Structure formats: structure tokens, C-alpha cells
Fold:
Amino acid sequence: IALLDTGDGSMLEVFAKPGQEFASEGRWQHLALHVENVEDALQKALAAGAAPRMPVMVMDLDAHPRKITIQIAFVYGPDGEVVEFIKQLVKKI
Structure:
């Protein structure tokens, strides 16, 4: 996993899974959207008709150049693409 800073506070997450093929018809297979509130974004997407894929959870990413903790949730978009809502969390020391 590599997180690329776009210069405006946004991040582009790039990753590959061994053995995974490209999506058919050139569509996005996975789109991650930075949001301020993951739970609210998930509920709004579900209310608009998105199909649920994964509830809200917190996980550590082995990202580069440093590991980060994120809160995420996933839905299926209208063309079957996976849409991720993501927020980077700040760990308290």
C-alpha cells in the first residue's frame, strides 16, 4: 500500500493484490473517498440505495512512508464498484 499526497490534503491510495485481475469494462473496481464522518457517509449512501459491503471498522495500515490507523466502511455503487469511506485517525500517545 502506498499513500500519495495530492498536495491539497487528499491522499491517493495505491495497492495491488496478488492474483487479482482488472475489472471488466474498464470501470473502477475500488474508489476510496476521504470523509469527515465515516458512519454518516455510510448511512447517507445506504439511504440513497447503495448496497452494504462492510460496516464501520478501525484498522491499522502498513502504509508507506509510515503506518497509519484508519476508520473505514464500504458499499457497492450502482455499477457494482466498491466505494470506501475512509478517515485517518490520530492515535493518542
